[in-house]
Design brief:
Pfam families: GFO_IDH_MocA (PF01408), GFO_IDH_MocA_C3 (PF22725). The chain is about 35% helix and about 25% strand. The protein has about 350 residues and is α/β, with parallel strands linked by helices. The longest helix is centred in the C-terminal third of the chain and has 19 residues.
Length: about 350
Amino acid sequence: MVKAIQVGLGHWGFSWTKEVIPKVPSIHMVGYVDSNPDAVKRVQSELGIEEKRCFLSLDEAAKGVEADLAICTLRTEAHYPVVKRCLELGFNVLVEKPFASTIAQAKELVDLAKANGRVLMVSQNYRFQPAPIAAAELIGAQKFGPVNLVSIDFRRHAPSQGYRYWDMPDPLLADMSIHHFDLMRMVLSDEPKRVSCRTWNPAASPFGHHPIGVATLEFEKGTIVSYRGSWMSSGPVTPWAGEWTMDCSEGEIIWSSRDHFMGKAGPDRLSLRERDKEAVAVPLAPVEFTDRTGTLAAIAKVIESGSVPARFSSGEDNLHSLALVQATITSAARGGEWVDIAEIMQ
């Protein structure tokens, strides 16, 4: 059993408190932290959390309870200072993506976690779904040989789907595409080499920054990924993880994941198509803890066992996903110029 505190009880944090944390039996909550008294009162009144387990500051919580893990569910700009303080206080940390605003900050947190002997994990929840796990295993087993080209489409119409963050900088690349970029790395078991990206904001868009983008990403083993994403699409809605076609030497792996639309959840899907044959749907193995419960269960297991599983999204691993975000943003600012990941990682 892992004793945990949660830091950040706002809109998204409360979703963790109510819908995610109670579903992971290896987590024992001992404290809840938010500087906003109203947020603290909400968990007390709506969820029946005892007052003695609620705190208005992280340092106050550290003095009041003994815990192994801090679950950090705050706004992005608060990630770096809060995670840093959690690590300094001796907590292992699970933090929402992106886990820092810059590569320099992210590297500092990774180094601090290592120096203190603590686990730092980024909640890349899209990894914990049946289809991307199966795709990663098929690619690893060379089911159809080497991957030549990966095509990914993400389509949503934010104005009609309850989107809220119209003034967020880089709403596509930084807030949404980071999931897809992270899945690219996981499924291909490869690291990006360079990227070219263009973004734009269409007429009559409520977004303050660019919600549409196209990118070409080159990976170290030579695989090219063609990515198209839009928060302003009038086309058919895709699952949250996008629609993927992975073109290999002897066939295609076609899949989609996190098929939630208008409150309805659909299953992950994966099909195999041998060259010159019809696609055949493949049954997917169930995942015990999916999505955000998957990330929480994973770090609890690492803390309890000391063993790090395959595809674990540690802070160190996630540096490369964050670098992809920064590289595509940089490329878009340069009019689509190729940007080397090495430049971003310096």
